Amino acid sequence: MLALIQRVERASVSVGGEVAGSIGAGLLALVGIEPGDGPAQVERMARRLLGYRVFADGAGRMNLGLCDTGGGLLLVSQFTLAADTSRGMRAGFSTAAPPDEAEPVFNLLVETCTRVHEGRVETGVFGAHMKVDLVNDGPVTFLLRS
């Protein structure tokens, strides 16, 4: 499992012109599910998403995680994140979990983060063509692996 996280001032995701999820200050996480990902990877990724220190403390250092700030978390499934880009000029998707395997894993990640995090947890629509709007704060962007 991969998550490209961005510290944001705000972020939203729309499907067909309708907002599916939106947050204020917090994290936008684009999530790629790989074959074989399951509950163990979900638990580790949830801990990392909620605890990864990307927010400034009183001294201006990145020492606080999302759980410390109570900020929002916008989770967006993005199978292209798990693509194989090592050869040629076109990505291969055999390294991404097929939709019927990926969707329950993504849903478990959403459920886990919602259960653990006291802040707002929002999502896009799994498998839909989405428009993501965000204001990256920093910019601060990290790629996490479970």
Give a written overview of the molecule.
This protein is of the alpha/beta class. The chain has one domain: D-tyrosyl-trna(Tyr) Deacylase, Chain: A (3-Layer(bba) Sandwich). The protein is built from three helices and eight strands. The protein has helices at 39-51, 66-69, 99-116, and strands at 2-15, 18-23, 26-32, 55-56, 62-64, 72-77, 121-123, 131-145. Strands 1, 2, 3, 6, 7 and 8 form a six-stranded mixed sheet that branches. A two-stranded antiparallel sheet has the order 4-5. α1 packs across α3. The relative contact order is 0.31. The model has no long low-confidence stretch (mean pLDDT 97).
Brief rundown of the structure:
It is built from 3 helices and 8 strands. It is an alpha/beta fold and 146 residues long.
- Order of SSEs, N→C? EEEHEEHEHEE
CATH class: Alpha Beta
Which strand-content bin applies to the residues?
35-45%
Helix and strand composition category: alpha/beta
The name of the CATH architecture is 3-Layer(bba) Sandwich
Q: Outline the low-pLDDT stretches.
A: none
**Count of runs of 4 or more consecutive helical residues:** 3
Helix content: 10-25%
Query: How many individual domains?
Result: 1
The CATH superfamily title: D-tyrosyl-tRNA(Tyr) deacylase
Q: Tell how many strands the DSSP assignment holds.
A: 8
Please state the CA-atom Rg, rounded to the nearest Å.
Answer: 15 Å
Form type? globular
Largest sheet: 6 strands, mixed
Keywords: Cytoplasm, Hydrolase, RNA-binding, tRNA-binding
Subcellular location: Cytoplasm
GO cellular component, one term: cytoplasm
GO molecular function: D-tyrosyl-tRNA(Tyr) deacylase activity; Gly-tRNA(Ala) deacylase activity; Ser(Gly)-tRNA(Ala) hydrolase activity; tRNA binding
